[in-house]
Amino acid sequence: MSADVELDHVTIRFGDFTAVDDANLRIKEGEFFSFLGPSGCGKTTILRAVSGFLEPTEGEVRIGGQNMRGIGPNKRPTALIFQNLALFPLMTVAENIAFGLEVRGVDKYERRKRADQLLELIALEGQGDKKVGELSGGQKQRVAIARALAVEPEVLLLDEPLSALDLKLRQHMRTELRAIQQRVGITFIYITHDQGEALTMSDRIAVMSQGVIQQVGDGAAVYENSQTAFVASFVGENNPFVGRVSAADKDYAVVESHFGPLRGRNVGGLSAGDQAMLFVRPESLSFANGEAAGENVIQSTVLNSEFEGSFFSVFLRGEGDKDIVMSMTNSGRLPEVEVGGTSRLAFSPDRALVLPKGEVADE
Amino acid sequence: MNDFFGLFLPAFFAVLLAILVAPVVQKHSGAVWRSITGIKFVQRNGVVISTYLLVAVIAWVVFMIILPQAYMLDFSFRHNLPPGKIGGPEDVYTLKNYQYLIFGRPGDEEMFNWLHLGVFIRTIVASIFVTLINFVICYPIAYYIAQVAKGGQARALILFLILPFWVNEILRAFAFRILFGTSGVINAFLQTMGIIDQPIDFIRADVALYAGLSYAYILLMVFPLYNAIESLDHNQVEAARDLGSPWWRIHWRVVIPHAKPGIASGCTLVFMLAAGALAAPQILGGPSSFWFTQIIYRWFNTGGNWPQGAAYAIVLLLACLIFVLTVMRVFKVSLGEIAK
Questions:
Q1: Cα A301–A302–A305 angle (5° rounding)?
Q2: Which of A145, A241, A268, B86 suits a disulfide with A257, CB 3.0-4.6 Å?
């Protein structure tokens, strides 16, 4: 059984501080949905409101169409996986997994049977009698998932569960989590500050900043068609150019920057005179040395370049001490960049976004 | 005879040790120094501090704990003799002090000394009750302070718990007497409210005694519990709740197992101290209820029979120890865990 989750004008305040400001969205049943944002953006607060550990100050949380106000976390059809997993260290692995069943009065034999089935699902057959402390980080992770799945929740909530793992394991667990979600078919709500996790696993992502949901969409939409300056700067790397719009139609807008007029897609629906930011991704930039000066050309000096394996990053500095990052895929040849030399960078207007000037994520 | 035990014996051993050790130390002073400075403990703390620590700890253990108890033990196996006969031919070891507690005077009508044995058993049982009452009162307080209260609130609560203990024990006990007396505050209140017609004799019913003893040791229960519960990751409580657990099962399956060493440590302290309490039973006890310590006190003081008193005290000590160790065994708590 899977259920949809609706946030209907949800506002959550702690004293004077507004942690979540008028959140409205509907998470479809069976969807893998992520809340992505920096720490303190309110994503964990939303999760706690869905799980029932706190009530919204205003608005409604509905699960499967039912208003959850006044229903405690032990009575909701949700299960939460904690950031530090919060496994019970004094119980065995099987007892941990079967705890929710024990609570529901399932008899001992049945509990054990169910725990063994779940251990199989998470590829830990025969490890039920171990103590939690004897497991590795990734194994604990999987036990936490099994413990949550044991109560057959309609919605599984995950609060940055991979953040404690090392890089390799984290990448492996991404695939595994996604596979488990597809196998059990229930709604997953995933909280993360790691855009890589959000992009790779999610059906849809809500990007949050300072309590406000900035944009909801699938990975490609959030990355390619960012709706706000925050989303453009937080999801992936981006180069912002600030300026005033000098000309705009419904498709394109021209921003007067330090580097002269720069043209990009008018995603923000701006008109002439508006303060704007034009965003170009590092991979959308290319060297235009030797070509005739044309549209969207940026004059800059190469500071240094870094070899990242599958690609090179080149750091440049332009007019007004503006730092610019570009990246080039590793095609087997070293890029011909000369540190200290001037370079002309160019980009296609279709690969640049013009958005209203706004808050930019800190690096 | 006692002089021999108290002074001569340690002095003798000290001299013997010095005679044996000194030449060796002198001969191998370099090696001795090297081996002393080779000890990890010495390396970590330096020679001066580690010597001080060792001497202080050993002196504490020997002079404050082992010697007085050994004295008492020795006493308990002796006859109660006038000072002139001490060390004389009549000063021999005997079991009669212990025998008296169990069987009474030879030739008594009763087979056993039911009077004293009864008091002994009642003291132990009453102390168990005091411990349980204390646990029931303190567990919610400790849980609240450790897991629910926010920083400032928790500190204020702890302060409120500590402050009343600035009042000395006797004053507190008498305050309870005033509270629970037949014309005391509680009776007066209940009578004016029309709940009772006749005052209830709380003192005769031992209510005052239980209340006084429980109150006296509240801190000794709260703090070990607080320490243990405080170290529990609150996420575990939330995880249990999220998995559908009602509050009592969270405590039963998650909080109490985690806090078990603290519970054992608090209960042990309260039980031992309640069984050994003197002032509270003296002041708050009813006329019919007698605490075993009061009998011991009488043997030492009014009775002037130290060996008899020592034997009773040793029995009380052993009984408490055995009881506590048994309970720890049953609940599978080790001594090391208690000290955590």
A1: 165
A2: A241
Contact A223, A233 (CB under 8 A): no
Residues of A within 8 A of B257 (CB-CB) are 90
In a structure prediction context, what are the per-residue pLDDT tens digits for chain B, which is 340 residues long?
455 566 677 778 888 888 888 777 777 777 777 777 777 877 787 788 888 988 999 999 998 889 988 888 888 888 887 777 777 777 778 888 888 888 877 777 777 777 888 888 888 998 999 999 999 999 999 999 999 988 889 899 989 988 888 888 888 888 888 888 888 888 888 888 888 888 888 887 788 888 888 888 999 999 999 999 999 999 999 999 999 999 999 999 999 999 998 998 899 999 999 998 888 888 888 777 788 888 888 888 888 888 888 888 999 999 999 988 888 888 888 877 766 6
The whole-angstrom separation of Cα A4 and Cα A81 is 18
Sort residue B65 into left (φ over 0), alpha (ψ -120 to 50) or beta: alpha
Cite the DSSP H helix spans in chain B.
Answer: 2-3, 9-27, 29-38, 40-45, 47-59, 67-76, 96-103, 114-143, 151-162, 169-180, 185-192, 207-216, 218-230, 234-242, 247-250, 256-275, 279-284, 292-300, 306-330, 335-338
With tokens 């059990």, the residue in question is A184
| Separation CA A36–CA A42 (nearest Å) | 10
CB contact under 8 A, A84 and B235: yes
The H or E element spanning position A285 is none
β pairing state of A32-36 and A187-192: parallel
Which residue of chain A has the CA closest to B238? A53
Longest dimension (CA), chain B: 89
Q: Which of B232, B241, B243 to mutate to test the interface with A (most CBs of A within 10 A)?
A: B243
Residue A99 C-alpha, separation from nearest chain B C-alpha, in angstroms: 7
CA distance A93 to chain B (A): 15
| Burial readout B70-108 (b: 16 or more C-beta within 10 A, e: otherwise) | eebebbbbbbbeeeeeeeeeeeeeeebbbebbeebeeee
| ipTM value > 0.85 | no
Residue B13 has a CB neighbour count (10 Å cut-off) of: 10
Q: Kindly compute the dihedral angle of the four CA atoms of residues B15, B20, B23, B29, in this order, to the nearest 10 degrees.
A: -100
**Chain B nearest-CA residue for A99:** B243
Domains delineated in chain B? 2-64 (no CATH), 96-339 (1.10.3720.10)
Q: Is A220 helix (H, G, I), strand (E, B) or coil?
A: helix
β-partners of residue A306 are A313
Looking at this protein, which amino acid is placed at residue B157? L
Q: How many CB atoms lie within 10 A of CB A342?
A: 12
Which residue in B has a C-alpha nearest to residue A74's C-alpha?
B244
